[in-house]
Amino acid sequence: MNIHKKTRIAVIGGDGTGPEVAQEGLKVLTAVSELEKFDFELKHFDWGGERYLKTGEVLPPGAADELRKFDAIYLGAVGHPDVKPGVLEKGLLLELRFQLDQYINLRPVKLFPGVETPLKDKGPDDIDFIVVRENTEDMYAGVGGFLKKNTPDEVAEQTAIYTRKGCERCIRWAFELTRKRNNPKGRMLTLVAKTNVLTYGHDLWWRTFQDVAREYSDVKADYNHVDACCMWMVKQPEYYDVIVTTNMFGDIITDLAAIIQGGLGVAAGGNLNPDPGGTSMFEPMGGSAPKYTGLNVINPIAAINAMSMLLEHTGHEEAAARIMAAIQKVTGTKMKSQAAGKMGYGTKEVGDLVCQLL
Ligand code: IPM
Ligand code: MN
User: Fold this and answer.
1) Is the dihedral of CA 289, 292, 294, 295 positive or negative?
2) Overall pTM > 0.70
3) Residue 2 pLDDT > 90
4) Distance separating alpha carbons of residues 260 and 235, to the nearest angstrom
5) For atom 1 of ligand 1, which residue has the closest CA?
6) Atom 12 of ligand 1, nearest CA residue
7) Ligand 1 within 6 A of 95 CB?
8) For a Cys-Cys bond, which of 18, 186, 324, 326 suits 14, CB 3.0-4.6 Å?
9) Span from the CA of 258 to the centroid of ligand 2 (angstroms)
């Protein structure tokens, strides 16, 4: 990507504490852009629960086309207590993932220094892997229906869709990432699926994985059933380097992964369209946490982490690395806890500390 031009970022602060944590990420962006000498431009969008309650519309017509013009999207959080579950998730988050063809959901899982993990005797050296989740297919495709709805004979069907193109582009991207990451402990990509039961859909994944693996003889191609993966992730997280998995399983195992890396206050993710000209979206995993809104108690580390990911993917690798190093100094030497209200600092103060340590 051309780093000499202005980086254009669409900001969707969203609901609850989303705008507050996004604000800290943007503060860090301003500070790092001065140090690394690059220009950026922001445009804020008021999309989310509040707007939906006022207008009855989650996204205005042409929203995805508008976002396509940006180099990246920075999302705070969506989710509003007065909006029925699913409306904003499907209408905003999933809609944008699909419309912008963000076919990779990238979740780095790294335990930062000073951050508490529920895993006994595990530290930052043990918990450091990446999950690559397919992000456009599977049961998320929205294929299904009802028959005889609301009768005793009702039938509901929810279909998992897998395409050769969909799994191949995700698997290939994951192999490339594993090669680039070049883990000193050895490069290994683990496919996580359920080939012993899902003998059609995950057979396609398995065969595609074997085919693509032939092009990457420098990467060990490994396989875990998803249930076993959940056990290993708790018992021996140091086993993993990079995991590639389907959309639904990826959703579940990345929440498990988030909790072992210290929880939703620190975990961040990217929804990537890695194709030329594709627009990717970066977000903290925390959700809108409405009860903490406006109290200056929510943890902004995840949002700042998401900003680091955004910069890495828009060609500002040095800026991204600077933020990552500053975050680790703040968690390692300043913060008392990663839990809202227990950090020893307010939301804004944590943002200030990261800026100072850049
Ligand atoms: C995630 C979230 C979403 C998902 C929800 C909010 C639709 O849980 O990004 O993991 O299921 O993908
Ligand atoms: Mn999830």
Assistant:
1) negative
2) yes
3) no
4) 11
5) 251
6) 251
7) no
8) 18
9) 10
Atom of ligand 1 nearest to the CA of 90: 7
Domains located in the chain, CATH noted: 1-102+292-358 (3.40.718.10), 117-261 (3.40.718.10)
pLDDT band at 5 (very low <50, low <70, confident <90, very high): confident
Q: Give the side-chain half-sphere CA count within 13 A for 147.
A: 5
pLDDT surpassing 60 at residue 334: yes
Query: Which band of pLDDT confidence, cut at 50, 70 and 90, is reported for residue 4?
Result: low
Distance between Cα 168 and ligand 1 center (Å): 22
CA 54 – CA 163 distance, rounded (Å): 39
Closest ligand 1 atom number to CA of residue 247: 12
Query: What are the tokens at 293?
Result: 């809104």
Tens-digit pLDDT profile for residues 220-270: 999 999 999 999 999 999 999 999 999 999 999 999 999 999 999 999 999
Tokens representing residue 25 in the block:
């990420």
Closest ligand relative to 270 C-alpha: 1
State the distance from the centre of ligand 1 to the C-alpha of 131, rounded, in angstroms: 14
Give the type of residue at 131: V
Per DSSP, the residues of 192-248 read: EE-TTT-TTHHHHHHHHHHHHHTT-TTSEEEEEEHHHHHHHHHH-GGG-SEEEE-HH
Q: pLDDT above 90 covers what percent of the chain?
A: 97
Ligand nearest to the CA of 246: 1
Is 251's C-beta closer than 6 angstroms to any atom of ligand 1?
yes
Taking CA atoms only, the protein residue closest to ligand 1 atom 5 is 89
Residues 6+ apart with CB under 8 A from 72: 7, 8, 9, 10, 279, 280, 281, 282, 310, 313, 314
> What is the pLDDT averaged over residues 152-180?
98
Task: Match 């021996």 to its residue by tokens.
Answer: 236
- Residues 6 or more apart in contact with residue 269 via CB below 8 angstroms: 105, 106, 107, 254, 282, 283, 285, 306, 309
Task: Report whether residue 352 contacts ligand 1, using a CB cutoff of 6 Å.
Answer: no
Nearest CA to ligand 1 atom 4: 251
